[in-house]
Amino acid sequence: MTTSSSTLGIKTVLHPVSDLAEAKAVYAALLGVAPQTDTPYYVGFEAGGQHIGLVPSGAPQAPSASLAYWHVPDIEAKLAELTAAGATVGQPAQDVGGGRLVATVTDLDGNVLGLIQDR
User: Which residue would you say has higher pLDDT here, 27 or 59?
Assistant: First the structure.
């Protein structure tokens, strides 16, 4: 089965953490870089072409488990393709700032898949 819109790969992974300061130290050691974004509600690292984000557990935007985001050129087209194939939209596309759109779908086995489109 082929689809009309491609993906640009998994480039973003968010991890819910119970203690942002402690997790920041662990991920800085793992990735070998300091965070690019460091706020009380989000810590983000750029390493090896990947964005690794830490979100405090229980925060409104926090995933319930680690969540990989597929980067796509057209989020609405990809959502349409995924729902036509049987996935269910968990979070419709929304602008989270800076021209970035994010959405999630759940596959037939309950796995949550993230989508990101940068404009």
Answer: 27
Q: Is residue 107 within 8 Å of 119, Cβ to Cβ? A: no
Residue 61 has pLDDT above 80, yes or no: no
Closest by Cα among 119, 117, 118, 92 to 104: 92
**Closest by alpha carbon to 106, among 59, 85, 119?**
85
Dihedral pair phi/psi, residue 83, rounded to 5°:
-70, -35
- Cα 21 to Cα 117: distance, rounded to the nearest angstrom: 29
Arithmetic mean of pLDDT, 30-38: 97
Q: Please say whether the beta carbons of 11 and 51 come within 8 A.
A: yes
Q: State both tokens at 75.
A: 């989020």
Q: Check residue 36 and give its pLDDT.
A: 97
15 and 55 in contact (C-beta within 8 Å)?
yes
pTM: 0.85
